[in-house]
Amino acid sequence: MDPLDPLRRVVRDVTDPQLVARGIETLIWLAVIALAAWAALRISHALLRHTAAGRAAEPAGRITPIIEGLLRYAIIFTALILMLDAVHVNVTPVLASATVLGLTLGFGAQYLIRDLLAGVFLIAEGTLQAGDLVRVVGNIGTTDLGTVERIALRALRIRKVSGELLTVPHGSIMWIGNLSRDYARAIVQIPIPYGANVSAALDGLREAAQAWAAAHAGGGPAEPKVDGIADLRDGAIVLQCSVLVAPGRENDAAAELRRNILEALARRGVMPGTPLGSPSPPSA
Predict the structure, then answer these.
(1) What integer pLDDT is reported at residue 72 of this predicted model?
(2) Does the structure show a pLDDT above 50 at 110?
(3) What topology is assigned to 128-178 in CATH?
């Protein structure tokens, strides 16, 4: 037997016109799939950016990066499957393995998936933004107050008043109170003895409210309101005055209202009892 026969057979098979044609056809299909995937990536990227242009504060603008990432992975995965099929690789076992792997990861990372899904909806709905003062209640009953520093896809980062930086997974949040949206309410409660002149005290609150409104014309969503008698406690009648102000201004407004009220009551000879202060969010 001629030792060169195996080599001659290999050369004959490689140079077979049908085999060469199939090889060229496969290469063309691979190039077409790669080009189509590249075009799909560019077109989808451009369409998403065009749709979300100028709408960053709306849900469509906030969720654009998420949709863009999902589309990118879907296009790349589809292109790989088509390429394997083009080179005559049976993709059924590959898809079956990917399904089994996906189920395994899904069961093992269910909390991670929960956090990611909750993050997608939180970002899409625009419930929060960086810089907001929020109160977050977790699923174990904990309550935290702080300023939002970053909203990631999996977790929320909050800086507490004490300086502590909290990382709260989205899936563990029961509810969120945003203290930086629309308006805040400054509330001042003043106790007076039961023997005091209530009518004179209420007139003092109205005078103080009018003085505050004159000093801050157009500075709030509404004029100060004298709520009257808010409570009856041991040894004191509690009078209340409130005003809507811009978020973050409630403490300053309450302090100024409190000073105006004390001066107005002093002019009417009404001596308040032990100050009750102004309701404020729980300390962090």
Answers:
(1) 86
(2) yes
(3) SH3 type barrels. (2.30.30)
